[in-house]
Amino acid sequence: MRLIDIAKVVRSKNAGPLNLTFDIMFESEEDYARGLASEDLKAPSIASIYGVSENTVIVTPYPAALAIKITIPRQYPAGNPGDRDVYGAQQHIGLLEVKI
Amino acid sequence: MTAVARIRDRFIKTDRNYLKIVGATGQLGYGIPEPAFSTALSHDLDMVGADMGSTDIGPTFLGNGEMATSAEQTERDLQKLIVGSRSKDIPLIIGSAGSAGAKPHLDATLEIVRKVAKNQGLKFRMAIIRADIDPNSVVRAIKDRRVSSLGVLPELTAEETYKCTNIVGQMGTEAFVRALQTEPDIIIAGRACDTGIYAALPQWLGFDPGPVTHMAKIVECASLCCVPGGRDPIMATLQADGFTLESMNPARAATPMSVAAHSLYEQADPHRIIEPEGVAVVDKVKYRAIDERRTWVTGATWEPAKQLSIKLEGAASVGYRAVLLAGSADPRFIAGLDKILHDVKEVVRGLVCSEGEEPDYDLFFRRYGLDAVYNWQNSPDNLPREIFILGECLANTQARAMAVVKSTKQYLLHHGFPGRLSTSGNIAFPFTPPELAAGPAYRFNAYHLMQVDNLESYFPVEVEEVS
């Protein structure tokens, strides 16, 4: 299934002006387990989706909220010339089609 | 007796062993919802706090010294907090004054506070904490190899440091505690960790920094930790081993799940809240529902920092920005857009520069409907039926940026391309002028960690009797 169909929340935001952080939250333990098991939500896949190097991707499971957090470096610091999204709130789009 | 002295004495000298703390707003200047704020004031509080700033708003406000919020709404919000807190004689603590918390932001905020006091006939003691960092001290730290990059920015150099129009450091709880020691009614701080606003009073009174920092991290976002999340004030009731959260809007519920989920918000690591003085570790925290709308939180622990450090924020000029607003619904124009924009750029260069001269400006196009928001890896299966083009020019002067954008507008409008049908114009303007001067533009050039031997010398406290 695609995250757009299964996830309760898929969001992105700045974590400071140099990083983007993504939160994927699930409705149920089962869906969360599927997300955790998915290769497509591990660092190599995320690195390829966002064009960053794999060793800069941090994936943190957060069972208390049935959530997976992913943090990556920004291409440009927030609001610097060339940046597309000063708050980083629309960069989750790259995750919506990910299948788990 | 001032508000801080009264609250301290009440805590120390009576059997009241808890603190009621309200986070009024996570971003002062956009409006503080009622009746939630009035409800908060009815609760016999120990303090009310508000955060005024963030780096989310980008480098411009730090660079130009202006507030991101409107002067009018900022004054309305400050007045509500000042009048409300004074009417109950409770401390008011505000951090990251004026959006970015540098001297011009803090001074503008203080002016509004004095104006409100005068208009309302109020007298109070105000503690002021500055957050500007002397560039010379940063340069010394660079030479001592005590400044490190936090990511995509390169290592900070002396040259870049002196380019910053403003440099601030994020003060921690320590600075607010020193301000409390002056026994004020109101504290207005420059750039600050949002947790410091709420953590200082309880830590000063002896509460464990673990749960206190966790509480502070949640209440600084007002009712965002609730379902549905929102901007209404929130109240934390802090006890020795944990805290209860309750939104001041009865339609919002702080549930164990919603509060736990809030640890994810805008944080790189949901398990650790990193502060200048140490780290609150929240991976073993327990969330328990008291009722449908309130949650009890306990279990955060505190690790003091082995090395004190200050997060630096600086912004430098990148000249002036001018923008062009234009749309198109022409399928052939949209299909040929890559080449059209490339060609128009070349044409404009020939018009605004002398022959053989390199352009002294940057001109680029954001193509909404295609790839302006997100850096797509693939072209869309179907082209959109309309697009919006935001032309953006950065140049050394506003006049130069406008000159480039105005020529761009005219030559984009009339650019000939293969298969063109609409020979009277390629783009639609929503209004005229479609070229707008956007003023000085900035970039973050400092967002670095500076190791220090003490925090207090960087964040001086002043006291002013306001009347």
What would your notes on this structure say?
The complex is a heterodimer of chains A (100) and B (467). In chain A, strands 1-2-4-3 form a 4-stranded antiparallel β-sheet. The mean pLDDT of chain A is 96. Chain A is an alpha+beta fold and 100 residues long. The radius of gyration of chain A is 13 Å and the shape is globular. In chain A, a hairpin with a 4-residue loop joins β1 and β2. The longest helix of chain A has 9 residues. Chain A starts with a helix and ends in a 27-residue tail after the last strand. Helices cover 31% and strands 27% of the residues of chain B. Chain B has 467 residues and is an alpha+beta fold. Chain B has a 10-stranded mixed β-sheet, with helices on both faces. In chain B, α2 links the parallel β1 and β2. The two termini of chain B are 16 Å apart. Chain B is elongated, with a radius of gyration of 26 Å. Chain B has 14 helices and 19 strands. At the A-B interface, β2, β3 and β4 of A face α11, β16 and β18 of B.
Give the topology.
The complex is a heterodimer of chains A (100) and B (467).
Chain A (H helix, E strand, L loop, with lengths): L2 H4 E8 L4 E8 L2 H9 L5 H8 L7 E5 L4 E7 L27
Chain B lengths: L2 H11 L5 E7 L10 H6 L5 E5 L8 H5 L6 H18 L3 E4 L7 H18 L3 E6 L5 H9 L3 E3 L8 H6 E6 L3 H8 L5 E4 L4 H11 L4 H11 L14 E6 L2 E6 L8 H7 L9 E4 L2 E4 L4 E4 L4 E5 L2 E4 L4 E20 L2 H5 L1 H16 L8 E8 L18 E9 L2 H16 L21 E17 L9 E6 L1
Parallel strand pairs in B: 1-2, 2-3, 3-7, 4-7
Antiparallel strand pairs in B: 1-8, 4-19, 5-18, 6-15, 8-9, 9-13, 10-11, 11-14, 12-13, 15-17, 15-18, 16-17
Helix pairs in contact in B: 4-5, 8-9, 9-10, 13-14
